[in-house]
Specification:
Blueprint: H1 3-18, H2 22-44, H3 47-64, H4 74-106, H5 122-131, H6 135-145, H7 151-158, H8 162-180, H9 186-190, H10 192-195
Length: about 200
């Protein structure tokens, strides 16, 4: 099926859902919820936060469905909403963390009991590495590697040029390689640049 035809089908489905057709809305949800949830999990590193953001994404989409123009895939439009919800969530989290840190800085210190033992899984290591890169770099990496989008499509999702999407992706790969160097996941990171260049 060619892209224009698919976009027309998405537009028709969105119009039906916006008009109150519950089966159309269910079709949209069923077709996109799993991949959006996975995207949000990788963006946040927190399944519960991802569930909340998925719900917020669909609530926002439901309210704004009439604004979908069908110029791109409906799933891409939903993913864009999810990405914006994630960025808002991160900003909110950073504000709460700053408040919390200022409170801790003012609290009296307890006796140092030494470092706590660390039991890290590969998933924790990977999530920490993903969290260490900028949200745009992380999104470019995930959209490219997990969703299989072209650099042009990644750029559209991030609201930037194709060349800028390539830069975000390659910088993310470099940062992940450095962060994962020496871990069992280091070999995985070494393969990202060649995976979809």
């Amino acid at each position: 099926m060619n892209a224009k035809r698919k976009h027309r089908q998405d537009l028709n489905l969105a119009r039906k859902a916006a008009g109150g057709d519950q089966s159309a809305w269910r079709e949209i949800y069923d077709a996109s919820s799993d991949s959006l949830f996975n995207f949000l999990c990788y963006q946040t590193g927190d399944r519960e936060a991802a569930k909340d953001l998925l719900q917020e994404t669909f609530v926002t989409a439901m309210r704004a469905l009439e604004s979908f123009r069908g110029e791109g895939p409906l799933h891409g439009w939903l993913r864009s909403i999810a990405l914006h919800k994630t960025l808002d969530w991160r900003r909110s989290l950073a504000r709460r963390a700053r408040k919390h840190l200022s409170f801790i800085a003012e609290a009296p210190r307890e006796t140092d009991l030494g470092p706590e033992p660390s039991f890290r899984s590969e998933q924790d290591t990977l999530q920490e590495a993903l969290n260490s890169i900028s949200p745009k770099q992380r999104a470019a990496m995930l959209l490219r590697e997990l969703e299989g989008l072209s650099f042009k499509e990644v750029g559209e999702e991030l609201g930037c040029a194709e060349a800028t999407a390539r830069v975000h992706y390659h910088r993310a790969g470099e940062a992940l390689r450095k962060k994962l160097e020496g871990s069992e996941l280091g070999e995985l990171a070494d393969g990202t640049e060649g995976m979809r260049s």
